[in-house]
Amino acid sequence: MVTNSGMSDLMYEFFLMVIQLAGPPLLLSMLIGILIAIIQAATQIHEQTLTFVPKFLAILAVMGFLGSSILTMLQDFLKQMIGLIAGG
Q1: Contacts of 32 (CB under 8 A, 6+ apart)
Q2: Of 6, 25, 38, 61, which is most buried by a Cβ count within 10 Å?
Q3: What DSSP state is assigned to residue 30?
């Protein structure tokens, strides 16, 4: 049986994992968006696809590099959850 303190520890671990998993793609997307916004402001070219395509390609690259570690983290968390359900 999971107590209140155990549940709050579990939620804390979950939120840390979400930040670790979503942080790199979101941070890179934000940085690329800012860089492209500066370029668009300097050149006065305001095309929507100019921001979308580089962000999309950068996120694909990050997911390609970090995909295996993301999957490993999710598998470990799922094993922990199953252990708590089976044991509790």
Answers
A1: 54, 55, 58
A2: 25
A3: H
